[in-house]
């Protein structure tokens, strides 16, 4: 695997802030939770980053990295232990209502829609909640439905729509609030490839034509690579990578494979594999060996196979996890605490 440079200096230079409008500013955010037995867990540990207006940023990391805690703190749904968050210059904790006017979120799939109402009734309902008479925003709603290709579903009950359509309704409800900043958790989860592409295209249009700022959390590598301008990767409560997506080709070129062997790999051969490649999740018994290996190109996998063959152990299976960032994270951050990202900075 190639090297991924660490870049944790997120403080923008004065010239940056003069030219680019900052939509989201997170400064020294720390969140501790107390566990049942009275211990403290630091879920987010002194995290800082700025997000410029008109960009799509991917917030990634393995399970438990602190993404949700960061997003919820940014939205004002959690009170941080330390640090501050500004949305379009408004302090989320000092002026929650003011900040809330600038941000909306599609947090858990499509749960923000009322399934028994039609698509249009949902939009009307949420407008009313904001104190807006639905009639006065009918044109905006029509435009949004058109944009998301939902016009012919406007009078259908949400419960009867396909999963992809429900996801779009959820997005429409969130976007109808017309906030400059939108947070989305796994926006393409459960969508088929075509629907996921459609949605990505729609999001890009919104950002480019309406100057929205979108923060996406996802485990899907392809989505992140094709959708985001910039990627922030968290691990164990800290930011380990913060780079433009184009600078992360190493990460996206990396593919992980789960290898299963019909016997115990000799120690010498295991050492060779471990010494040459990024590996993780080894499981060994007398009649079976399993491990995960990350390689830069599928061809490099043949080199791994050569070492295994030399070890005299038959290969039961090699399966690819092409779109699963989780596996790549586990491998690059190391099961044993060794952090490849840090090591290459
Ligand atoms: N309410 C809570 N009480 C105690 N610990 C919590 C609480 N919420 C989260 N944590 C812990 O904080 C850490 C970060 O969790 P968080 O949900 O922010 O991670 P995540 O990156 O969003 O993970 P995932 O991808 O699994 O959603 C984890 O160790 C988690 O167990």
From TrEMBL:
Keyword annotations: ATP-binding, Nucleotide-binding, Transport
Cross-referenced Gene3D superfamilies: P-loop containing nucleotide triphosphate hydrolases
A single GO molecular function term of this UniProt record: ATP hydrolysis activity
Highest taxon above the source species: Archaea
Residue ranges constituting the ABC transporter domain according to the UniProt record: 24-261
PROSITE patterns: ABC_TRANSPORTER_2
Pfam families: ABC_tran (PF00005)
Signal peptide interval: none
UniProt similarity note: Belongs to the ABC transporter superfamily.
Protein name: ABC transporter related protein
Species in which this protein is naturally found: Haladaptatus paucihalophilus DX253
